[in-house]
Amino acid sequence: MYKISDLQKIVEQELSNQQFVTEPVGLYEPIEYVMAMGGKRIRPTLCLAGCYLFSDDISKAVKPSLSLEIFHNFTLLHDDIMDNADVRRNQPTVHKKWDENTGILSGDAMLIKAYQYATEIDGAYLKKVLDIFSQTAIEVCEGQQYDMEFENRDDVKVDDYLKMIRLKTAVLLAASLKTGAILGGANDKNAELLYQFGENIGLAFQLQDDFLDVYGNIETFGKAIGGDIVANKKTFLLLNALQLASGSLQNDLSTWINAVDFNNDEKIEAVRNIYNSLKVDELARNKMNYYFDKAIAALNEVEGRDSMKEELRQFAVKLIERSR
Known about the structure:
Elements: H1 4-17, H2 25-35, H3 42-52, H4 62-83, E1 87-88, E2 91-92, H5 94-97, H6 100-118, H7 123-150, H8 158-183, H9 188-215, H10 218-221, H11 227-230, H12 236-244, H13 247-258, H14 264-278, H15 280-301, H16 306-320
Antiparallel strand pairs: 1-2
Helix pairs in contact: 1-3, 2-6, 3-4, 3-8, 4-6, 4-7, 4-8, 7-8, 8-9, 9-15, 12-15, 13-14, 15-16
């Protein structure tokens, strides 16, 4: 009987067995570099879990699960170029270690590689799996475009933000589970329920990430607190604050958003206090819980292996109940 931790180990082992470097080395070496950076391997693990819910044979889902991880890392590689990021997982980003042109071309090759891995399945499932993969891939690009546009827009609403994080983050988690379910022989209803589970967990996870960036503990959150506030990033918290603030709170928030020369710690503390006054932290918690409850309700309806359903339930809890 597989547990989530077993499936994660299988993914790591399979990735270590892949030979990404071939000629020309300059194209493929960055791909191996990116894939060796690590990470939680959530998406391929969820794909295998989706398969195991309905089938004892998870081998048929291994290559498609790796395609999802390759695609995910391709998006990170190109995101780093667009953000001009220096570091990814404590390592120099590809465009910094090599150059921007290499990052673009190697990223393109990663996307093609992802499709090649996705096609290594039983032909009976090929169209369904590729349709999901292609739809998800274009949605992730749509989410990234919205995210970039939001940086220069003053009319972004909370619903716009929720749409963006659904596309940029949640749909890939959902597609991973649904792909595995299809390969495991699930019917359309169960495959769709798993998609809903993944989609809602993805939304809850991103809202939790927004929350922890303001209220988290640096030692357990794993990155500096308050980065979103410093950068005026349009998160669920900021957008709600902009909508709710009036009078002196509105003036104070506007002053900090438009400030050019400021002390980071002072700005973080001041904006956090504004959030507390407006109780947007409670709004974030409530929205998080709303999506989490929707996810679990969908999972409860899935007619699959009970032991893996429980594993997924606990996985979801751990994913969004990180230390605060």
